[in-house]
Design brief:
The chain is an alpha/beta fold and about 210 residues long. The protein has one domain: Alpha-Beta Barrel (TIM Barrel). It contains 9 helices and 8 strands. The chain has an 8-stranded parallel barrel, surrounded by 5 helices. α1 crosses α9. The chain is globular. It starts with a strand and ends with a helix.
Length: about 210
């Protein structure tokens, strides 16, 4: 279970509060996104999240910004089409840092794996209002997630419109995990919402392993 932050979707509670509750609910990774915040605001928030995640032994991933990942001592960076290439980020961050890559199909997934990505964020699986995506990257569906899983050997995390109702279906398609924004950030109880998402994914993985 991978939480992607977005302060304006926290119903006034703020990202740090939501992250703290998600950690209590068992989240496996936290991504600092906050695309509309300035670099200094992201850095200051990142310092707070770095402390929270370090204490909980939860990886902190920085969206887009390799420089912020270095400055914060983050565990990794997540890259999209408009960001540095995976190989360049790896050179800057070193072999032990996590490098994730957004993809929306098998061909891009294979290229990212060959370039050295540690995991893939695949989506947007369903309709989402938290990120503007190109038409070819919108509502790609569960079948495309399954095709990406078949195409690569690195972990696949499905993102885009993930809820407690559909997380299990995505896991059943082979995704190693799911990433969510509003399913956690806008939940009345972010800890409980995180727990339910984790349980939905784990239940499908248990079925698949039988």
């Amino acid at each position: 279970m991978y939480l992607v932050s977005q302060a304006d979707r926290t119903i006034g509670r703020g990202t740090a509060t939501v992250v703290r509750k998600a950690i209590a609910g068992g989240v496996d990774a936290v991504q600092l996104r906050e695309k509309h915040a300035s670099a200094i605001d992201r850095y200051e928030l990142g310092q707070e999240l770095r402390e929270l995640t370090r204490e909980a032994d939860v990886p902190l991933i920085i969206n887009d910004r390799v420089d912020l990942a270095v400055a914060l001592g983050a565990d990794g960076v997540h890259l999209g089409d408009d960001d540095l290439p995976v190989e360049v980020a790896r050179e800057q961050l070193g072999a032990d840092t996590i490098v994730g890559r957004s993809v929306s199909g098998p061909e891009a997934a294979r290229m990212a794996e060959t370039a050295g990505a540690d995991y893939l964020g695949v989506g947007a699986v369903f309709a989402t209002g938290t990120k503007n995506t190109r038409e070819s990257e919108s509502e790609i569906g569960i079948d495309t997630v399954a095709a990406v899983v078949d195409a690569v050997s690195i972990p696949v995390v499905a993102i885009g419109g993930i809820t407690t109702e559909n997380a299990g279906r995505v896991a059943a398609a082979g995704a190693d995990g799911v990433a969510a924004v509003t399913a956690i950030t806008e939940a009345d109880d972010p800890a409980a919402a995180t727990r339910k998402l984790c349980e939905a994914v784990e239940a499908e993985h248990e079925v698949a392993s039988q």
